[in-house]
Amino acid sequence: MKKAGYFAVFLFLLALCACTPPSGVGQAQGQTPGPAASAFVRDKRLDNDKTIYPGVSIGGVAVGDMTREQAAGAIAAHADTQCKKAVLQLKLGKEAFPLDASVLRPQVDVNAAVEQAFEVGRKGINQQRLSEIEQAASQGIDVPLRLVFMPDDSALDKALSTIASGAARDPVDAKLAFDGKKSGDERFIITEDIPGRTVDQQALAALVRDRLGANNLEPIEIPVKESPAKLTGDMLRACRHRVSAFSTNLLDGKARDNNISRCAAALSGTVVMPGQTFSVNKITGPRSEENGYSNANTIVGGRIVQEPGGGVCQVAGTLYNAVLMADLPIVERHNHSLISRYIPPGLDATLVYGLKDFRFKNNRDTPVVVVSIFDAERRKLTFEIWGKPLPDGMTIRTTSEVVDSIPVPDGYNVKVDTSLPEGHVEVYVKARTGTKSVSYKVYCDAAGKEIKREILTRDTYPPTKLTYLVGPNTRVGKQ
Predict the structure, then answer these.
(1) Measured by CB atoms within 10 angstroms of the end CB, which terminus of the chain is less buried, N or C?
(2) Average pLDDT over residues 47-54
């Protein structure tokens, strides 16, 4: 019975085949078979087992219609170029520190890439395969050329150490310049601080190895630890309050003006950090002709002489009072041997480079700024101290009084100068009365009322004995 059934099916199929015309029969030449016929026609592209399908590329290099061997040859040079170009950028803000191929040691598995390209259109059922073949032909399919990184550990660590050194920097303090032509806060030109930084090399090495292990060349932000500058822009901005100011009248003389203005300008804009000691001599250096100072009157041994830098003691005295009024401790100050015309006794300060200095210390927890103003037209020298204001609106002023005088010594001295002609006589040192003074620091409240008064110094300006300068073999009679 079963045999009869199979035989009937066979006859049916044979009849059906007899009804289907041969290729080209019953259709115009070039006409495609109808739907019923095409269902039984196999696409020849499915039978390709030699070459990569058209439209396939590897890393941008077209390898369609190539054998595996041909494709490997075609992409070999490209793969080598890609390996040489491989760079992992380590970034720090706008800066970049590259790790190049010599450190990364990239490799490409060319055969694996070729095999992946060959597999395009060869996976899945026929319908899926044909769809992927059509996609490659019409849109293109690119197989990425994947780099694998095999860095030498010691070489990588050495490269990262070099980068860490290059990326590190010491903190840079904020800077302050002073423009006396402007007013208010605009007079202070602040250059912002730059924090220091050190690279966390251990964390960086871990990031790099993780990235290379994933065959990923996306840039890495370098992990750093920042260290603040000692002097920040914010600290300088907090100093833009004038704590004190003191002025003295300038005496006549171009040489003296040059010395005072030059010395004052050297000090102006100096930022004194907490705990730091300010030194006039250290800042100005030798006040010599080589450094631009002129010969002008100065006091030496109780007499007035011409020397380079003459007049700079007025700078020290003016600054001395401004510092006292800012309630900053004095480290070193010396009074003159003679009373000065521009400042009361007891409030002066003298300078002799290498011997006598004017120094004060910043005992605050914030910086102070020294500012000088040399006003040639109004004939005034002013020093200001800028910083945080004194507490509770308090102000300080300085004053002094003469408490005693010292008589001129009797008689006279004679100083012989063999370079002078015989019979020459001149006054070498004038006879002067000595003076004793007491200076005070006066504290006032916000309303200007005196709170307390402290003694600053008790100074003595010794008398000078009349002294003659004479030539050889010269007698001085009673004068």
Answers:
(1) N
(2) 91
